[in-house]
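Readers of this paper often ask what the protein records in our data store actually look like. Such a record has a labelled line for the sequence and another for the backbone structure tokens. Nothing more is needed to write down the fold, since each code stands for a local backbone conformation. The remainder of this section carries one protein's record, kept here as part of the documentation.
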Amino acid sequence: MLTIELVNTNHLTFIDALHNLTKQELEFRDERAKKINITVSSFPYVKTVDDFDFNYQPTVNKSLIYDLKSLRFMSEHKNIIFIGSPGTGKTHLAVSIGVEAASQRISTYFINFAVLMSKIKKQLQSSELIQL
């Protein structure tokens, strides 16, 4: 039943109906903000840690990845870097942690290392970036 019908049939008070509608609106806005954050983060695809096959990559420390998913490293002002051979899931894991951050409405941006280095070299050549 719709909220209005519940009020009209005395199954819901007007105050409760307003409370429910406000709650639904806030949930809708939160979900929309999450989707927008994920879209503007430039992820090559959307994956989660739960999508990762730890059986295929048994050398990946599952408990460490789930700890990274908690985003505790961000509150501790730490960085993470995934290093490994091609096909080991580095991008998948980086994207999944980024998606988690974007879902929590944390400003996130994904860039491939090779593209980042290319942009830095280009800016250094054009003197737009100060060399340290």
Notes: The chain has one domain: 3-125. Helices lie at 3-8, 14-40, 62-69, 72-75, 90-103, 113-125.
